Structure prediction request, 193 residues.
Amino acid sequence: MSKRKAYYAGKLKRAVHLLFFRRHKKPGVKGWELRRALGSDYPKVLKILDEYLKPLDLQVKTVFEEGVMENPSAEQLDQARFYIALRGELTPKEAKMIGWRIDDLAGLAVTLAYLVSKGGKAPRREVEALLQEKLPGWRASLNIDRYIRYGYLAEDEGEQLYLDWRARAEVDLKALADLLLSAQSRNDSLIKS
Prediction:
């Protein structure tokens, strides 16, 4: 093995240890932690790791506090969070195996879609009222608390809910909106028929 391959093999191993094993409340690590552990070429190491993860249907995800970024600077990468996520989609059977009920997932989808339609932020009482139409009333508040605990939503001191890091990282919000709009247009065409 060449020195260069051995050099990157060691860095890949350290990157896997940092990304796969949870050490903080949130999964993954910040860019500055990767830079400290792997060196300034950590973005290249993560690209190589991402290629290795493709056959396993996994990927290295980057989440910026400001949302999606084109050509981020070194400082922005240092503040971003990196973690391992699915590349594809979960089947309903797989989703059930990870502890999510189908109605909990549906509630999350409704909540995220509603927040996206409101510009990413809405009062908690509005979201709870919406969920109470779809779920048993007592579960609406519990589900919102769960979504907050898991990092899909965040709540400020004014009881405003907004999209948190995990919703931006794991959910294709544009695809969700397109799916809901296409379902609505199909329903509209069925009603007209």
Observations:
- The radius of gyration is 20 Å.
